[in-house]
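Okay, any thoughts on this one?
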Amino acid sequence: MPRKLVAAIKEHALPFNEHNLNKIVESIGNAQIVMIGEASHGTSEFYTVRAELTKLLINQKGFNIIAVEGDWPSAQAVNRYVKGYEDDNATATTILKESFNRWPQWMWANEEVKEFVEWLKDKNDTLSNKVGFYGIDLYSLFESMDEVIHFLSENPKYKADFEHAKKAFSCFEPYNRMPEHYALSTAQFTDECVHEVTDLLKSLRNNKEQYSNKHEEDLNVMMNALVAKNAETYYREMMQDAISWNTRDSHMVEAINELLKYHGDDAKIIIWEHNTHIGDASATSMKEDQMINVGQLIREQYGMDNTFAIGFGTYEGTVIAADSWGDPLQIIQVPSSKLNTWEGQLHAAGGQDKILIFTDENRKLFNDRIGHRAIGVVYHPEYEVYGNYVPSNIGSRYDAFIYIEQTKALKPL
């Protein structure tokens, strides 16, 4: 297999350059949804190349939504900034540092994202249909409840929904704003706050016509209520079910669907997430563990012709990560990939940055199962051969792949 795969890479790989990035854009065609991954949450090149692709899609194809693996309230601050809803004295640096203030802050509060956010604000100044920037993750249980309560309390005309929100919020109050405390409590009381957050979302949806769309207030209150409902499920399952992963990715797909519906029939969305979320799980060992992900669900719901997934990888370099959850960030050396891995095969085919575009004609050449490196916010390179490689059928997992031979760590703000 290795010899065949190296030969296939040599035959089909394109040099990494601006011209061939545009070939990816051409291959996307009329797809409504483009998913752009990353092999870590701490590699500079993954962020900068993803941003360049996003600029091309906005400029050439009219994409108008960016949905990221971040919390809704934090990303909303960025959305308000790039759409001109914020005070003119705000800057991308202050918005990112103040909004993404929970660990791991470096994922979004970094120089690479700051440069893109500044570009997007300037670009939006020239557009009538401005490009939005939204978070689709579900870790902001308490922050999202705060947002709902604050908005409804400031608008007495929404009294009925405010009563629902107060009841839901009071259910979570005993847990000291710590989701893990709620997760532990639900080991004994499995439906403690389920009904309250479900009733809140139902009430808001029933009354959605009364909310103002000024500065997307209607979208904001609805999405925060959706986060609260699905986050409650996620934290409840953490102590009972290894497949809480599926709840999280299903929430992100629900959020994507809501964004597309809100922005109308002509909406086109770019999704920024880790490879493990956007690369079709059914083409990996995740399938055997009964795990699904965003890439799989989006393809199933919208079809292969209307979606496009782009993966990333590196042979070696440095990355921002930590020893354990909540620890200070470190710049960690990423070791050279072994020959019998996807990244090792890309290196063996020539140590240059390269692009692969998978088509109906060549996918089968890249579909032998092989380990594909995935680095999270917690990373132990000394053990990565045992846990950081996801067995994958690369040609089916993605529609294109960008390989950067030597990478460097993100630059946190």
About this structure: The CA atoms of residues 86 and 194 lie 35 Å apart. The mean pLDDT is 92.
